[in-house]
Specification:
Length: 274
């Protein structure tokens, strides 16, 4: 099955799949966009592509300030044992967004920020949040807000399991799925910057770096994994459980190929035309 996919995909995107080693693949993907648009520096791919940039509102606060304030408050609220989240994260959990995702050599899996928030809760006698819980979203949003402009730096440990999860994420990104039989790569590489309805398709570079996204039309926050599922919906493929292994490996792949680009989350979407 894997061989079949690679053969099919090689037919569409030869340059990108010729490198199987993660570092060379990352280089080829970044070079592809640099060759295509030499005037666009890599660092600007994470800029916001929403109509009204990530700007502050008239009040001088970002539109997601309520969620950010809530996240900040939750982060320092003591659990019943007197500890709080800052005991679980370095730097009290501030400015650490670029530590994620990472390959955890102990458990042999990709760990995400949301997962570590839940792990911290469980270590401190609290039950884990559902991954679409508003408080979970606020905590992650606040932590990412304190990490804006951090440089993406996903480490590939010298461990064949890490390369295997990278390859699983990569295969996910390049595999056709859904009734439309389309891969993420078709839209986010081949059709990057073209229109999809009223929206512009963002390129693979910068793709994960603006999430979570705040949508002012309904005052909600969309997480990276929710966005993956929305895009799967475009192709009429089934969604995956939030924080499932498949989506975490996809996240690992996407951040790794974006190494050296700055984070720019949370971002703001002003209106929905979907
Ligand atoms: C049919 C085209 C199409 C396909 C296929 C597609 N996407 Fe998207 N994707 C889009 C469009 C259009 C947007 C921008 C939506 C917006 O502005 O709200 C987007 C946005 C995103 C974003 C948010 C980035 C940002 O800042 O707006 C991520 C992450 C993403 N896609 C990942 C994926 C992944 C992973 C897949 C494969 C499972 C995928 N997409 C498949 C069209 C597509």
């Amino acid at each position: 099955m894997y061989v079949y996919l690679v053969v099919v995909l090689l037919a569409c995107l030869p340059a990108l799949l010729s490198a199987s080693e993660p570092k060379s693949h990352q280089q080829q993907l970044q070079d592809y966009f640099l060759d295509k648009s030499p005037a666009i520096p890599l660092s600007s791919y994470a800029n916001d592509n929403s109509p009204l940039d990530n700007s502050i509102t008239l009040s001088g606060l970002p539109p997601y300030s309520q969620q950010a304030q809530q996240g900040k408050k939750l982060l320092s609220t003591p659990f019943s044992n007197g500890h709080n989240y800052s005991y679980c994260f370095r730097s009290n959990g501030l400015g650490i967004g670029s530590d994620y995702p990472y390959f955890d050599v102990l458990s042999g899996q990709v760990k995400t920020l949301a997962m570590d928030v839940n792990e911290c809760r469980e270590e401190n006698g609290k039950s884990a949040y559902e991954y679409d819980h508003a408080d979970m979203k606020s905590i992650v949003l606040y932590m990412m807000d304190t990490s804006r402009r951090n440089i993406t730096n996903v480490i590939m440990p010298n461990d064949p399991r890490a390369e295997a999860v990278f390859n699983q994420g990569k295969t996910f990104f390049f595999s056709r799925r859904g009734q439309l039989d389309m891969a993420c790569a078709h839209c986010h590489i081949d059709y990057a910057n073209k229109s999809y309805g009223q929206q512009q398709i963002p390129p693979a570079l910068g793709l994960p770096l603006r999430m979570p996204r705040y949508d002012s039309s309904n005052d909600t926050v969309t997480t990276l994994h929710e966005r993956f599922n929305q895009c799967l919906g475009y192709t009429k493929a089934k969604p995956f459980p939030l924080q499932s292994e498949a989506l975490r490996n996809l996240e690992f792949y996407l951040f790794y190929v974006n190494n050296t680009l700055p984070l720019n989350a949370p971002s703001v979407k002003q209106s929905i035309h979907e």
